[in-house]
């Protein structure tokens, strides 16, 4: 019987989902169900606003003086609403083209309906007769609906007829007063379940309270709790370790659930898998503990925990509010309680109708102009008192301002930096101030009480300990109380107006009636919305990617990407390169690097060792198929031989492997397995070792990855009607597109993807303009970047377009980055349906002619070559010298096609030579310095841009610096490099007194500089050291030689504003440096600096090749040197000697100690003599060259070394050159 009953009730409860809930609800309503803010006349009354009716004037129209018009419908009872429809006033020019929809249970406290994407505006009519229906993305259960017009026919007026679609539903309601609960008692001692389904709806005006609790003796428990306006679920299955610990972890869903409106909860558990859904937000997780069943003893409690001393309980407060349709595993708990069934025990006062009081509030909409002016009511005891509740996300805002008597005193209460500050302004500039509260911008309701009596002003927040200002005399209010802000003429402060919600406002213990205020019967106001708290949580769902932390204000959200390895407005972009090849092509040396192969994709970065040396690629892989292979390192697949057979140097030429010779001494077979289709190696089996004296030793080296095929994956389009197609882009919330192109055509579409209305497109719209356009439902948005030089010059150009819910951006080569902010309350999702077209469009018009390579979208590289093989009009690869992966130009050098060859443009490289691989080195003495002065303030040039669209506003570019150089010195302390700005910011790289490297970043002049010491050892050791510093926002990455890779976090992500100059060596002018930096600056630098690069500026090259330039200032002797190349050559020579020695040692390990000693002695002597001779020759050459070049460098030598370097010294003169020319 019980089982049948349970199934019967459960089936009835869900029956509403089994039939169509789309019947009309308005057409049969009486006149009394319609209300409006105003009406033009009786014939325009609200009750005439039924769809397709011609009663009266054919619909509702408000008075033309109505500043806040609305039409309200009472459905007479709670209904499930699934759609709404609108129509203009019959046979007129009056209609509403967009509107908001509010709903309420009581007609007093309202909530705005928002679609799943957060958009609250509905599309209305374009004429008076057509019906426009809007289906609700999630149905609402409500009694009252309010239509608020936002836009209407500009040639007419507002006219409205409406219909609401839905159905009735069965409602079982229980009211809990915070001291009551319902206990569902089991028929046996305990209930053990492997599957649970719990569903309910609730509403409350309190942010804390237990909705459900049950526990068992073995340690199981389940608790559903409202905490800080969110819903926490605690669930444990048979884990006694968590029973008595304080480390219980909740799964949290929802936000702002204390808004006095209904919220639905659904919990499904099967074994350890749990789905928790609140409204439209879901969490999927796996329970802790070893068990698969939930064992609860005696009972489940709903609405609270009735016994405060119950073992294992930890919750603070019972639920205060209403629950509806509460089901536990198909059992209707409220129905059983209402019929007084014995399974249910009622504790306290539980009633079966929802009579919760409605706390009506208002919303302050604008942080610039909202205010509420209220008259001062007389106080019987003298002084005055003010009480109210507020909630907001903003860290700053004025809450209250009042003039005091005696004059000219003024009292202000404001939120400042998330705390409350009460300030009494006396005559002159004297003031008294106290603070209270902490993080009051958390979106929760906070109560404020302000009293002046007994020569004290007392401020109390949330019932905590009061803060007090002592007075010399009793104060009285003078004039009006300004709440949330004040008119400009009466304000004497710089604090922004309050933006948020307020309720329960009282002055001198007299409540302020908000309805009277709205009707103009009490006080005055500006930019307020009554009867609703229109707060929303912009961090739910969290749109920050890759683990970014979301924070918000009233109108926007932001993402903290620190520690994630990603950057950008939504932490979408990886800060690391995609491969070792990409690091190699920007001039990085061998070492450990973090790479992110899928860029902005879901895979995180990983650290690898990148070997940047030239030579045959090595590749060690784990076994892919598990098949037996009998060839060995150094030989080709399928041949059972070793490398010594190929090289014809086996110890016994009768065998193809040294180990097959079966000698009495150790033999060695070594080689590299590089045929990746047969790799990886999962197991090595060495046989024939069971004989006496037979031994074997094997070693597998590390996996090393080289190259990046996707960087050079290209396709050539030679017919305008041709294109490549790929599956639809999955880019609803975020997308980044990057590619390289070269063409001689004046225009063409790089790629396009269409939806029903939405689209995204990147194209060359004219010979010098690249355009990124898209529409996500807010209207077309267009970003354009214009180059002062043509882009159809048959050279490679880089394009990167990004769009996310916060902003859109477009980058072309190194032209200034274009940013557009997205509208705060616009549609966030890009909905596409067609195929992705590359090199053309769906209409086969405006096709692209030329080459596209390295197409990457959201971290996924597109194989253009493979798709081009099967597409007419498109061919794989791209003709030309500069279209392959041969790295013809090094160290950021740019390969430029010529009719009969190519040249390397090294203007963006710190290196010289025909292929940009020659070190540029200069010797400094104590008085030497090189100062590079920027032509114009650098950050202004980077950010300079014009408005591209009225839809969005532009934001500034991100802070980023790249610094690289090499040095040799024995001096300490020493100044290596400084960058200073007109705004007193600076970067300094110095050697301290102990020779350790120090990096100083002074980005905010009101704070102490950030100082980092990545290497504590002495670098003033006469050896060559390579330094690379890379900053993105707050993240600072430092590489020293190949050994040290360190990440630091700066205290600020501020940009360098108005960069003035970069100095190498001694600083002569007085700067605002710290004492330690100034001490190093005064000492200058003695030694050699090589290949110095700051962003796109190479100051040493500029000094050597443009001594007469006004951009470069040289002080003291400056001598060209080859110290960088010499040190590098010496380093490589010693490394080669070490490798050779180690190899000899391995091959001849069976020789006697005596032989080794003799050989070692001979080698040591030879090396010593060679080094001495090299030192003598170097000294003589150095003296001769110094005598020849005491203060300058010969013109012909300069031209011979830098024939490819032009006088383009500044980014402004080479904007189309791209730092990322060979990578993404």
TrEMBL record:
Topological relation to the membrane, as annotated: Single-pass type I membrane protein
Domain (F5/8 type C) ranges: 16-167
Membrane-spanning parts: 1156-1182
Xref: PROSITE patterns: EGF_3 (PS50026), FA58C_1 (PS01285), FA58C_2 (PS01286), FA58C_3 (PS50022), FIBRINOGEN_C_2 (PS51406), LAM_G_DOMAIN (PS50025)
Fibrinogen C-terminal domain segment(s): 571-617
Superkingdom: Eukaryota
Annotated localization: Membrane
Keywords: Disulfide bond, EGF-like domain, Membrane, Repeat, Signal, Transmembrane, Transmembrane helix
Cysteines engaged in disulfide bonds, as pairs: 851-878
Family note: Belongs to the neurexin family.
UniProt cross-references to PANTHER family, sorted A to Z: CONTACTIN-ASSOCIATED PROTEIN-LIKE 5 ISOFORM X1 (PTHR15036:SF84), PIKACHURIN-LIKE PROTEIN (PTHR15036)
The protein's name in its UniProt record: Contactin-associated protein-like 5
Lineage: Eukaryota, Metazoa, Chordata, Craniata, Vertebrata
């Amino acid at each position: 019987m019980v089982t049948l009953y349970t199934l019967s009730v459960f089936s009835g409860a869900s029956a509403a989902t089994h039939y169509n809930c789309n019947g009309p609800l308005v057409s049969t309503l009486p006149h009394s169900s319609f209300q409006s803010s105003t009406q033009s006349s009786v014939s325009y009354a609200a009750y005439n606003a039924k769809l397709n009716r011609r009663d009266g004037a054919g619909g509702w129209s408000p008075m033309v003086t109505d500043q806040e018009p609305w039409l309200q419908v009472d459905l007479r009872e709670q209904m499930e609403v699934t759609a709404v429809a609108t129509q203009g006033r019959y046979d007129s020019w009056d209609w509403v083209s967009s509107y908001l929809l509010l709903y309420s249970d009581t007609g007093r406290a309202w909530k705005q309906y928002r679609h799943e994407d957060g958009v609250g505006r509905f599309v209305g009519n374009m004429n008076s007769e057509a019906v426009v229906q809007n289906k609700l993305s999630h149905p609402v259960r409500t009694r009252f609906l309010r239509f608020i017009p936002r836009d209407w026919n500009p040639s007419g007026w507002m006219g409205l007829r409406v219909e609401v679609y839905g159905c009735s539903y069965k409602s079982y309601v229980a009211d809990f007063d915070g001291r009551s609960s319902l206990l569902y008692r089991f028929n046996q001692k305990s209930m053990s379940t492997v599957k649970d389904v719990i569903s309910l709806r609730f509403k409350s005006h309190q942010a804390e309270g237990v909705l459900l609790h049950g526990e068992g003796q073995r340690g199981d428990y389940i608790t559903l709790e409202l905490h800080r306006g969110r819903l926490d679920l605690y669930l444990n299955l048979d884990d006694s370790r968590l029973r008595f610990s304080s480390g219980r972890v909740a799964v949290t869903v929802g936000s702002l659930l204390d808004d006095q409106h209904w919220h639905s909860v659904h919990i499904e558990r099967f074994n350890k898998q749990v789905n928790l859904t609140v409204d439209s937000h879901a969490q999927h997780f796996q329970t802790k503990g070893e068990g698969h069943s939930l064992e609860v003893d005696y009972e489940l409690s709903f609405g609270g925990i009735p016994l405060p001393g119950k073992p294992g309980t930890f919750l603070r407060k019972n639920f205060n509010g209403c629950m509806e349709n509460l089901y536990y595993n198909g059992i209707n708990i409220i129905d059983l309680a209402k019929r007084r069934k014995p399974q249910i025990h009622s504790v306290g006062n539980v009633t079966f109708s929802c009579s919760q009081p409605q706390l009506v509030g208002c919303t302050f909409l604008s942080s610039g102009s909202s205010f509420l002016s209220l008259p001062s009511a007389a106080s019987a005891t003298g002084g005055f008192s003010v009480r109210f509740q507020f909630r907001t996300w903003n860290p700053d805002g004025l809450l209250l301002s009042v003039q005091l008597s005696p004059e000219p005193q003024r009292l202000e209460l404001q939120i400042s930096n998330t705390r409350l500050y009460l300030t009494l302004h006396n005559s002159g500039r004297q003031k008294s101030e106290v603070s209270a509260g902490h993080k009051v911008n958390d979106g929760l309701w906070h109560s404020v009480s302000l009293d002046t009596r007994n020569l004290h002003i007392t401020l109390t927040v949330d019932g905590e300990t009061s803060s007090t200002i002592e007075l010399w005399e009793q104060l009285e209010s003078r004039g009006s109380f300004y709440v949330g802000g004040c008119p400009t003429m009466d304000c004497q402060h710089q604090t922004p107006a309050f933006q948020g919600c307020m309720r329960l406002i009282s002055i001198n213990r007299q409540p302020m009636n908000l309805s009277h205020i709205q009707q103009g019967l009490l006080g005055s106001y500006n930019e307020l919305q009554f009867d609703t708290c229109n707060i929303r949580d912009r961090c739910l769902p969290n749109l920050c990617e890759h683990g970014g932390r979301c924070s918000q204000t009233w109108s926007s959200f932001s993402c903290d990407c620190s520690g994630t390895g990603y950057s950008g407005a939504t932490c979408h972009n990886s800060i690391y390169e995609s491969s070792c090849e990409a690091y190699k092509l920007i001039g990085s040396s061998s070492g450990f690097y973090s790479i992110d192969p899928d860029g902005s994709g879901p895979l995180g970065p990983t650290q690898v060792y990148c070997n940047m040396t030239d030579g045959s690629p090595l590749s060690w892989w784990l076994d892919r198929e598990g098949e037996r292979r009998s060839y060995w390192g150094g030989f080709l697949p399928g041949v059972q031989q070793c490398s010594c057979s190929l090289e014809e140097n086996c110890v016994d030429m009768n065998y193809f492997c040294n180990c097959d010779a079966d000698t009495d001494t150790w033999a060695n077979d070594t080689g590299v397995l590089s045929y990746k289709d047969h790799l990886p190696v999962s197991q090595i089996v060495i046989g024939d070792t069971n004989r006496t004296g037979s031994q074997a030793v094997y070693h597998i080296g590390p996996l090393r990855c080289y190259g990046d095929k996707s960087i050079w994956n290209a396709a050539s389009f030679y017919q305008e009607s041709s294109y490549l197609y790929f599956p639809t882009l999955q880019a609803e919330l975020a997308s980044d597109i990057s590619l390289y192109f070269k063409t001689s055509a004046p225009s063409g579409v790089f790629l396009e993807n269409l939806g029903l209305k939405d689209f995204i497109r990147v194209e060359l719209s004219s010979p010098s303009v690249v355009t990124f356009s898209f529409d996500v439902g807010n209207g077309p948005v267009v970003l354009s970047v214009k180059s002062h030089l043509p882009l159809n010059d048959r050279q490679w150009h880089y394009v990167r377009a990004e769009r996310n819910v916060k902003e859109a951006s477009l980058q072309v080569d190194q032209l200034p980055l274009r940013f557009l902010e997205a509208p705060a309350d616009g549609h966030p999702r890009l909905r596409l349906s067609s195929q992705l077209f590359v090199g053309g469009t769906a209409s086969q018009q405006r096709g692209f002619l030329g080459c596209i390579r390295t197409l990457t979208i959201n971290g996924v590289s597109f194989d253009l070559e493979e798709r081009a093989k099967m597409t007419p009009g498109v061919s794989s690869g791209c003709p030309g010298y500069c279209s392959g992966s041969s790295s013809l130009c090094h160290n950021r050098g740019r390969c430029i096609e010529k009719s009969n060859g190519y040249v390397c443009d090294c203007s963006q490289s710190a290196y010289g030579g025909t292929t940009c691989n020659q070190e540029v080195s200069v010797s400094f003495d104590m008085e030497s310095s090189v100062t590079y002065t920027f032509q114009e303030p650098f950050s202004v040039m980077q950010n300079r841009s014009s408005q591209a669209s009225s839809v969005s506003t532009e934001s500034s570019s991100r802070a980023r610096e790249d610094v690289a150089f090499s040095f040799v010195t024995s001096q300490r302390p020493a100044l290596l490099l400084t960058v200073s700005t007109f705004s007193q910011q600076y970067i300094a790289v110095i050697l301290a007194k102990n020779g350790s490297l120090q990096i100083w970043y002074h980005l905010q002049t009101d704070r102490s500089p950030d100082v980092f010491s990545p290497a504590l050892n002495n670098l003033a050791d006469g050896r060559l050291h390579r330094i690379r510093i890379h900053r993105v926002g707050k993240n600072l990455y430092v590489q020293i030689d190949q050994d040290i890779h360190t990440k630091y976090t700066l205290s600020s992500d501020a940009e360098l504003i108005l960069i003035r100059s970069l100095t190498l060596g001694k600083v002569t002018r007085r700067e605002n440096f710290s004492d330690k930096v100034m001490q190093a600056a005064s000492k200058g630098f003695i030694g050699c600096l090589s290949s110095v690069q700051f962003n796109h500026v190479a100051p040493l090259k500029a000094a050597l090749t443009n001594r007469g330039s006004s951009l470069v200032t040289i002080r003291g002797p400056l001598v060209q040197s080859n110290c960088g190349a010499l040190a590098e050559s010496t380093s490589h020579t010693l490394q080669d000697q070490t490798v050779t020695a180690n190899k000899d040692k391995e091959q001849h390990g069976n020789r006697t100690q005596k032989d080794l000693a003799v050989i070692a002695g001979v080698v040591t002597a030879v090396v010593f003599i060679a080094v001495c001779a090299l030192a003598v020759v170097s000294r003589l050459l150095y003296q001769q060259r110094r005598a020849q070049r005491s203060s300058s460098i010969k013109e012909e030598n300069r031209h011979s070394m830098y024939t490819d370097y032009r006088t383009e010294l500044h980014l402004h003169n080479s904007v189309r050159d791209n730092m990322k020319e060979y990578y993404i």
